[in-house]
UniProtKB/TrEMBL annotation, chain A:
This is Roadblock/LAMTOR2 domain-containing protein. InterPro entries: Roadblock/LAMTOR2_dom (IPR004942). Belongs to the GAMAD family. Residues 56-74 have a biased composition (Polar residues). It comes from Apiosordaria backusii. Residues 13-134 form the Roadblock/LAMTOR2 domain. Residues 42-77 are annotated as: Disordered.
TrEMBL record, chain B:
PROSITE patterns: WD_REPEATS_2, WD_REPEATS_REGION. Its main location: cytoplasm. WD repeats lie at residues 501-548. It comes from Apiosordaria backusii. It is found in: Cytoplasm. GO terms for biological process: transport along microtubule. This is WD40-repeat-containing domain protein. Residues 26-39, 66-75 have a biased composition (Polar residues). GO terms for molecular function: dynein heavy chain binding; dynein light chain binding. The keyword Cytoplasm applies.
Length: 141, 692
C-alpha cells in the first residue's frame, strides 16, 4: 500500500502479534533469528514457556534490543528470555539436523509439540523462527 | 688526456653500435608488429627452420605452465610466453623474447585453440590459491586484511569457508555450505552449552549476578544492537515471515478438532457445543446455523459489502468486495478480501483498487485469478500469487466503460474465455483475460423502440449455463431484457427487441439462472430480485426459439411480446439479492433490506420461506441502519454453506440442514416436482399467486 510508512509497518507486525496473543489459550510468542539465535521479538508472558521460573513478567510486546536501555524489562527477565531462546533454538536446530539426516533435500516447516501441559507451535523459515506456546485444549490426553 | 679521448671515442662507437642494434631490432619488431598475411602463411626461412624447435618450446612451455600454475603460481617465462601482446610494450626485447613472441603468432596459425592459454594464465595470477588446507587462508585474511578495511570476521570466514568448500569438493551447493556453517555454529553452541552447564552448576552454589556477563557473552552469536534489530525487524523478509507464519499459527489455533481428544476421559466438557447454542434458524432438517463471521478492523471498517463469491477451486475460500471507507481517505477506495473458513480473524488476502469495487468474482478457469468491476468503470484483475495491487486493469479511457461496472462474468471454456462486463450507461464489453488494455468486443445496449427513452441502464447481467452468447440484463426501470453478444439468425447483436420480461416496478438488483445440473433441464428458470419488495420466477425463452415464438405469439408484425413471471414472491422489504442453490433444484435464498436471509423451497412452499435467519450483530457495530444485506452466495460444490454481507461490512457464513443443501440425499423427484410445478403454473396461469 502506498501510504504505508515504516511506522505502520511495525504497527502492522505488532497487530499481527497482538491478534495471535489474543487467541484463547495463547501464552507467549517468540521470534528468533534462524542463523544467530538472536531474539527479535517477544510477546506475552514468555516465562510461561517454562515452569521453573516463578516470578511473572507482565505480558507485553517489546522489541528486545539487548543494548537498548532496558527500563521496562528487568535484566532477570531478559536473561530468562535469552535462556528460553537458546532452548528453542537448540530444539529447532536438532530437529533440522534430524530432518536433514532423513533426507538431505528436506527442511522443517512446522513443528507442533504437545506436552502434558501445553502445546508449542514452531514455524521455521530459512531466516526466522516463530514459536508460540499455548494451553492445550481441555479434554485431550 | 689522450687516454680520456680514446675512452670517449670508444664509448661513442659503442653507443653507435648499440643504436644500430636497437634500430635493427626496432625494424624487426615493427615488421612483426604488423604481420602481413603472407608472412603468417609463409614465415621467414630462418624462422621456418627453427619451427620444430619452437613447437618443442611451446609444448614444454605449455606443459610447464600447466604444472607450474598449480604449484607455484609465479613463473615469468611461461607467463610471458602466452601473453603475446605485452611484448611490444616494454624494452625487454631480447632474442629470446622475440622468438617467444613469434611462437604464439605461429601457433595461432598452427593451432587455433591457442587463446585457451590466456585463461589458464589468468588463473595463475591468483597468488593465494595454494592447495594447502584451511589454516593458511585464515592467517592471511586475519593478519593482513584487517588493517585496511573492516570485514565482519564471521561472514568473511564463512565466505572463505564456503569458497574453499566449493573449490575442494567442486560442488557449489548452498545447502552444503549452509550446513557447514550450521555445523560450525553447532560447535560453538556445544561450547556454549558446556559453559552454561557449568554456570548452572555454579548457580546452585551461588545465586548472584556474577555469571551474567559470561552468559551474555556466550549467547549463540553476538547480540544485536538496537539498530541492527530495527533493520532486521523492518526488513521485507521479516514482514513476509511474520505475515506467513502468523497466518499458519492462527490456522493452527483456530482448528476446532483436537486430534488428541481422549474420549475415555470424563465427558463433562463434551456437551458445551450444544445444538441449541449459537445463532440458528429453521427447524429440524431445514435448520440454518451461523458458522463464521469475518470482519477485519483494519480493512472492513466503515465499508459496505458489494459482492461475495466462493472459490470454485478451494471451497474454504470466499471473497468479498467492499466500497470505500469515507473516513480513511488515504486507504485505497476499493478492496477485495479473500477469507478462509479456517482463518477466523483476518483475511487470507487483501486486494486493492483505486475506486470502489462493485463486483468481484473468482475466475472459474484459473484458481489464482480474481476479476472485479469498479465504480470508475475499470475492470480489474488480481492474482493471489502477486501483491495486493491488481495485475491488470483496464485504462480510464473511452475505450471501455466510463460508468460504474456493477456486474461482470467470465464465460466460455477453459481454453477460450472472456470477461463480459456491463456498466450503467448500457455499455457491454468483452475482454480477454490476458489483455485488458482494450475490449475485444463492445456494444451499447438500447431500449427497444416502443420505449420513451432509448437509454438502457443495466444493473446486473446473467448468462445461462449452456450459452455464452446469450444473456439477460436487469435494468434500472425494472424490465429484464434478453441480449445477444453476436448477430444471429433473426436477431441482431444487442437487446433482443422481440421479448422483454416486464414485472418489476423498481430497479432489478439481481438475475440468476437456474444451475441446471440434474436429470431434468431447468436451465430456463430465472430468479430476479428487485427493490419493489419482490422476487420473481421467470421462464426464459430459448434464444434460438424466440423467432418462432414471436412468429406464433406476436402475430409476426414485430410487436413486442411481454412475458409475465411464473411466480411472485412478495416480501416485506426491498430484496437485494436472490440466488439458486447449486445442488437443490427447488431451493433458493434471498437477502433483504431488513437484514433477513431467507431460504425458500418451491417444491414445498411458494408463499413462505422454509427458514429465515439474521446474522448476529457485531458487538461494536452500529445498531441503526446496519442490518441490510446486499449479497448472498452459495458455496458451489457442496451447496451446504452460504455467505452473506451488507452495510456493516461483515461477512457471515451459514450452514444449512440436509433438506436445504448438501449432495447426500438428492432425489430425482425434486427435479420432476419443480418441473411439474412450472408446468402447472403455465397451464393454469398465475392465478392465486400474483393476485395476492
Amino acid at each position: 500500500m502506498a501510504d504505508n510508512s515504516e511506522m505502520t509497518d511495525s504497527d502492522y507486525i505488532n497487530k499481527n502479534f497482538d491478534r495471535v496473543l489474543g487467541k484463547p489459550g495463547v501464552k507467549a510468542v517468540l521470534v528468533l533469528d534462524r542463523e544467530t539465535g538472536n531474539v527479535l521479538k517477544t510477546g506475552g508472558n514468555t516465562e510461561l514457556f517454562r515452569k521453573e521460573s516463578t516470578e511473572s513478567s507482565k505480558p507485553s510486546i517489546s522489541n528486545d534490543a539487548p543494548s537498548e536501555g532496558t527500563t521496562e524489562t528487568s535484566s532477570a527477565d531478559r536473561e530468562g528470555v535469552i535462556e528460553l531462546a537458546t532452548l528453542v533454538w537448540n530444539y529447532v536446530n536438532a530437529t533440522e539436523q534430524f530432518v536433514q539426516d532423513l533426507n538431505k533435500e528436506d527442511t522443517t516447516h512446522l513443528q507442533r509439540l504437545r506436552t502434558a501441559t501445553q502445546e508449542l507451535v514452531i514455524i521455521t523459515d530459512p531466516r526466522f523462527i516463530l514459536a508460540v506456546a499455548h494451553d492445550k485444549k481441555p479434554n485431550s490426553g | 688526456m689522450q687516454q680520456r679521448r680514446d675512452e670517449i671515442l670508444a664509448k661513442k662507437a659503442k653507443l653507435a653500435e648499440l643504436k644500430r642494434q636497437r634500430e635493427l631490432r626496432a625494424s624487426q619488431s615493427a615488421g612483426r608488429g604488423s604481420i602481413t598475411p603472407s608472412e603468417l602463411i609463409s614465415p621467414m626461412p630462418g624462422r621456418h627452420t627453427s619451427r620444430h624447435d619452437i613447437e618443442n618450446l611451446i609444448n614444454s612451455l605449455v606443459g610447464d605452465s600447466r604444472s607450474v600454475s598449480v604449484s607455484t603460481g609465479m613463473n615469468s617465462p611461461a607467463r610471458r610466453g602466452s601473453r603475446p601482446n605485452s611484448v611490444l610494450s616494454g624494452g625487454e626485447l631480447s632474442n629470446a623474447a622475440t622468438s617467444e613472441f613469434q611462437v604464439p603468432a605461429n601457433a595461432q596459425v598452427v593451432t587455433p585453440s591457442q587463446p585457451q592459454f590466456l585463461s589458464t594464465v589468468a588463473l595463475k595470477t591468483v597468488y593465494e590459491c595454494p592447495p594447502s588446507p584451511v589454516k593458511e587462508v585464515f592467517s592471511y585474511s586475519k593478519g593482513v586484511q584487517t588493517t585496511e578495511e573492516w570485514i565482519p570476521p564471521t561472514r568473511a570466514r564463512a565466505a572463505s569457508d564456503s569458497d574453499l568448500e566449493d573449490t575442494v569438493t567442486a560442488t557449489p551447493n548452498k545447502r552444503l555450505s549452509r550446513r557447514e556453517r550450521d555445523r560450525e555454529e553447532e560447535l560453538r553452541e556445544n561450547i556454549r552449552k558446556e559453559i552454561e552447564e557449568e554456570l548452572k552448576a555454579a548457580k546452585e552454589l551461588v545465586t548472584d549476578g556474577t555469571m551474567k556477563p559470561s552468559t551474555k557473552e556466550n549467547f549463540p552469536v553476538r547480540a544485536l544492537t538496537a539498530e541492527e534489530l530495527k533493520a532486521v525487524t523492518q526488513s521485507d523478509d521479516f514482514m513476509d515471515f511474520v505475515e506467513r507464519s502468523t497466518k499458519v499459527i492462527e490456522k493452527a489455533l483456530d482448528e476446532e478438532y483436537d486430534i488428541l481428544t481422549d474420549y475415555t476421559l470424563q465427558a463433562a466438557n463434551l456437551d458445551d457445543d450444544d445444538e441449541q447454542s449459537g445463532n440458528t434458524g429453521g427447524k429440524g432438517r431445514r435448520k440454518v446455523r451461523e458458522i463464521a463471521q469475518f470482519y477485519d478492523d483494519r480493512w472492513s471498517k466503515k465499508r459496505m459489502i458489494s459482492s461475495i463469491d466462493f472459490s470454485p477451486k478451494f471451497p474454504e475460500l470466499l471473497l468479498a468486495s467492499y466500497t470505500k471507507n469515507p473516513t480513511a481517505p488515504h486507504d485505497p477506495d476499493g478492496i477485495v478480501q479473500v477469507w478462509n473458513m479456517h482463518l477466523h480473524d483476518r483475511p487470507e488476502f487483501v486486494f486493492h483498487a483505486q475506486s470502489d469495487i462493485l463486483t468481484a468474482k473468482f475466475s472459474p478457469f484459473h484458481p489464482n485469478l480474481i476479476i472485479g468491476g469498479a465504480y470508475s468503470g475499470q475492470v480489474l484483475l488480481w492474482d493471489t500469487r502477486s501483491k495486493s495491487a491488481p495485475v491488470q486493469k483496464t485504462p480510464l479511457t473511452g475505450l471501455g466503460h466510463t460508468h460504474p461496472v456493477y456486474s461482470l462474468d467470465i464465460v466460455g471454456t477453459q481454453n477460450a474465455n472472456n470477461i463480459i462486463s456491463c456498466s450503467t450507461d448500457g455499455a457491454v464489453c468483452g475482454w480477454s483475460v490476458d489483455m485488458l488494455t482494450q475490449p475485444q468486443e463492445a456494444m451499447t445496449l438500447v431500449t427497444p423502440p416502443p420505449a420513451k427513452y432509448e437509454d438502457l441502464s443495466p444493473t446486473c447481467l446473467a448468462f445461462p449455463q449452456a450459452d455464452p452468447t446469450f444473456f439477460l440484463v436487469g435494468s434500472e426501470e425494472g424490465t429484464i431484457y434478453p441480449c445477444h453478444r453476436y448477430d444471429r439468425a433473426g436477431a441482431k447483436a444487442g437487446v433482443d427487441a422481440r421479448v422483454s420480461y416486464k414485472g418489476h416496478a423498481a430497479p432489478v438488483m439481481s438475475v440468476d439462472f437456474h444451475p441446471s445440473k440434474g436429470p431434468v433441464d431447468l436451465g430456463d428458470l430465472v430468479l430476479s430480485a428487485s427493490l419493489d419488495w419482490s422476487v420473481k420466477l421467470w421462464k426464459v425463452r430459448a434464444p434460438a426459439a424466440t423467432s418462432a415464438v414471436v412468429a406464433a405469439v406476436g402475430s409476426a408484425v414485430g410487436t413486442e411480446s411481454q412475458v409475465t413471471p411464473l411466480l411472485d414472491f412478495v416480501r416485506e422489504d426491498v430484496v437485494y439479492d436472490a440466488a439458486w442453490s447449486p445442488v437443490k433444484p427447488g431451493v433458493f435464498s434471498l437477502v433483504d433490506g431488513a437484514g433477513w436471509l431467507e431460504l425458500w423451497d418451491i417444491t414445498v412452499e411458494t408463499e413462505e420461506p422454509v427458514a429465515r435467519i439474521s446474522p448476529s450483530a457485531r458487538k461494536d457495530g452500529r445498531t441503526m441502519l446496519s442490518k441490510s444485506l446486499n449479497k448472498v452466495a452459495w458455496e458451489p460444490s457442496e451447496g451446504k454453506r452460504l455467505a452473506t454481507g451488507g452495510i456493516d461490512g461483515q461477512v457471515t457464513v451459514f450452514e444449512v440442514g440436509p433438506d436445504l443443501g448438501g449432495k447426500e440425499n438428492l432425489k430425482n423427484e425434486e427435479w420432476t416436482s419443480v418441473k411439474k410445478l412450472v408446468n402447472r403454473i403455465e397451464a393454469v396461469g398465475v392465478n392465486g399467486v400474483t393476485a395476492v
